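Technical annex, item 7. During the second reporting period the consortium partners agreed on a shared format for inverse folding records so that results from different sites could be compared directly. Each record opens with the tokenized structure and is followed by the designed sequence. A conforming record, contributed by the partner at site C, is shown below for reference.
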């Protein structure tokens, strides 16, 4: 979406361009976007950082966003928390709440397994190690429908 908005083009155009750039070896296609090749300059370029790198950036802002989002969740709610470092902080805020939490985030699922009391459902599919998420195009509808 960020690339769509910044460039003013359709999602299909972004996908095709990312495929072409990846095939040309100019960047690397990753789940959710595109990443610069090792050693490349990142100045002014929108790219997907690895989860481990992104998790340590703007931590206080992420905690504030998570705290604000957590105020919208009520006991008994079912909440989908996607992968990503900001979403991880939301999951931490919701860990002890009386809710059902659905996630595709391995880091969040591991945290909630050790520290949470909420009901937890983890998506099935293939593990994408770099962002730490589980993804399956064929399982998305049943997962979100549950």
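Designed sequence (site C submission):
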């Amino acid at each position: 979406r960020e690339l769509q908005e910044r460039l003013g083009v359709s999602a299909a155009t972004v996908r095709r361009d990312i495929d072409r750039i990846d095939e040309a070896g100019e960047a690397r296609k990753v789940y959710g976007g595109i990443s610069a090749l090792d050693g490349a300059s990142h100045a002014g370029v929108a790219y997907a950082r690895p989860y481990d790198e992104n998790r340590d950036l703007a931590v206080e802002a992420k905690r504030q966003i998570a705290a604000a989002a957590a105020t919208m969740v009520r006991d008994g709610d079912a909440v989908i928390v996607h992968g990503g470092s900001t979403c991880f902080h939301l999951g931490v805020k919701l860990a002890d709440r009386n809710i059902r939490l659905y996630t595709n985030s391995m880091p969040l699922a591991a945290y909630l397994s050790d520290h949470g009391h909420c009901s937890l459902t983890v998506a099935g599919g293939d593990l994408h190690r770099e962002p730490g998420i589980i993804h399956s195009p064929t399982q998305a509808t049943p997962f979100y429908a549950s």
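The longest helix spans residues 11-23. The first strand starts at residue 28 and ends at 30. All partners now use this format for quarterly exchanges.
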